Amino acid sequence: MSQRCEARFLVLAVICVGLNPLAVAEVKQSYAVRYYEVPYGEYQYRQLAQYAPMCVDGKRYVGCTKWDLRWSYKHRQDLRCVLLNFSIAVTGTIYIPKIAEQSLSKNPILRRAVDALLRHEEGHLDFPVQAAYRLEHEIKKIGDRYKTCTELGNFIDKIGNRLLLDAQQLERKYDAETNHGNKDGAIF
Ligand SMILES: [Zn+2]
Fold it and tell me: What's the average pLDDT block by block, 10 residues per block, for the chain (188 residues)?
């Protein structure tokens, strides 16, 4: 049975490659959470924020998420421009305070605040990820639309940059609406 399936799969694969010359298309994601050091017991917002790294807007917040959205592609100029492959990568780092476990276990309100902060910061990453999938969707539709590879490259970069700006704008809206997670329980 498995042999038959493999044979069918092979035929399908050949047909797919024949129909769509785009060999590789994917969105890669990688994230990390970094805990910055804070002195024991200094858990008020202003106290914490002064130990936080500088965030993307040059200010310090108790929590901060820095992300990057990059894309690359390869093409070949035939009669029309053929897109051979592309890749889109979202990388992100979340910064939140390293509060002593002893303090967290004594203070469930503080623990809930830290959990809410982490969820808020994770929410920031939704914007570049959504942008990445939209970009992937747009790129997959290109087909042989462009005669020259300059046109094709310009189109991808233009749409990528637009989606990048949209993501940054949505992120600012998210912070304004949640007051940087405060309304969702990230209260220090
Ligand atoms: Zn935020």
Answer: 41 40 73 97 95 96 97 95 95 97 96 97 98 95 94 97 98 96 95
Distance 114 CA to ligand 1 centre (A): 13
The contacts of residue 31 (CB under 8 Å, 6+ apart) are 91, 92, 93, 94, 125
Q: What's the chain's Rg over C-alpha atoms?
A: 23
Q: Which domain holds residue 88?
A: 26-184
Q: Which residues contact 74 (CB under 8 A, 6 or more apart)?
A: 83, 84, 85, 86
The tally of domains found in the chain comes to 1
For strands 81-98 and 64-77, give the pairing: antiparallel
How much distance in Å is there from the Cα of 124 to the middle of ligand 1?
A: 6
18, part of any domain: no
Q: Report how far ligand 1's centroid is from the alpha carbon of 172 (Å).
A: 8
- Are 113 and 188 in contact by the 8 Å Cβ rule? The answer is yes
Q: Residue 91 has what DSSP assignment?
A: E
